[in-house]
Amino acid sequence: MANLVNLQWVQEFGMLGPIDGLKVIEDPHHVAGEHYFLFYPDDDTVGSFLFGGDVAITSTEDLDRTFFPYAQDSVEHIEVRAGDPHAYAAARVVASVSPF
Length: 100
Known about the structure:
mainly beta; globular
């Protein structure tokens, strides 16, 4: 079972049908114009959110309209960070999911 921090399970619908994933509940420290991105700390890579069910975007200012696919039996550790995706070490962690 996944350990969720500031995330909730959602089911969105894309052109190919339903997609299970995770959505950030809120960012209490949001700064106007701040960008959010997905970060995979196990391999230092940046991922993509889905917008509108099936459009992949690497960053967003609007967490309410985006989510990211995640299977309940996944073993990936993913963080949602706020800041510059090119300077991910300095970016603030807003939410995370891990298998442990």
